[in-house]
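Internal ticket - ligand job 231, adenosine-5'-triphosphate:
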Amino acid sequence: MKSLVVRNLTYGYPDGRRALDGVNLEIEEGMRVCLAGKNGSGKTTLFLNIDGLLDGDGFISVKGMERSAESMARIRKSVGFLFSHVEHQFIMTDLLNDIILSVGDEASGAAAKKDIAMQWLERFDLARYADRNPLDLSTGEMKRAALAGVLARRPGLLLLDEPLGGLDRENGEKLAAMLRTLSTTMLIATHRRFMVEEVATHVAVMEEGRITGLYERSKALKRRDVRMLLF
Ligand SMILES: Nc1ncnc2c1ncn2[C@@H]1O[C@H](COP(=O)(O)OP(=O)(O)OP(=O)(O)O)[C@@H](O)[C@H]1O
Ligand SMILES: [Mg+2]
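stdout (structure tokens):
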């Protein structure tokens, strides 16, 4: 089954700028696709459309659910979106309760939900911050906390917008190792070669509001246009 199909998607911001200009992209289940493209090429705008936060013209389906007014809530439930500015992701004033909010129907009852939330915090080495306001974490800790919250919802499709931003080398490597252990299909907007080498199965190239190619990782790393987009 295809996890994501985007066909001829266009989107213009209210000021008239055409940020997406006919995007076509198909992602098979289990693929981890790095989305490489210059600043302003439309990566974040594409993610916002896939997650239903913007409604460009064109076709989008997520896990077989075609985008429509009726399916939007279900699509949003199955998409996990890690923003590039993760401070916008937190709802509660303490980390544990924020994660608890993300734990869905897999646990019934407050105690069971709390246990699962604590396990996510432990997995991300954040248990000692359970009572802390998420906004009082360091950039890297905040990133890990936001990702824990996104994963706790057990999304079928993960959208990660520049997930290495603000992380030090050690935490960047930990994050990459953790992402590799997940079987979740993911689309990762990134400028980092490290992410492609360590996590991606494929690379998609975005230029001026379009996807201009989708390549298997080792082929992508041999391409000059791809290498020019990564550092
Ligand atoms: N809220 C907005 N209003 C108007 N134009 C916007 C808005 N957000 C983005 N744009 C424009 O849309 C285009 C695509 O931006 P987008 O943020 O999707 O790029 P990006 O590929 O994510 O870039 P980056 O690598 O810098 O994150 C850019 O020209 C940008 O200036
Ligand atoms: Mg962006």
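Auto-summary: The longest strand covers residues 2-12. Strands lie at 2-12, 18-28, 32-36, 57-62, 65-66, 79-82, 157-161, 185-189, 202-207, 210-216.
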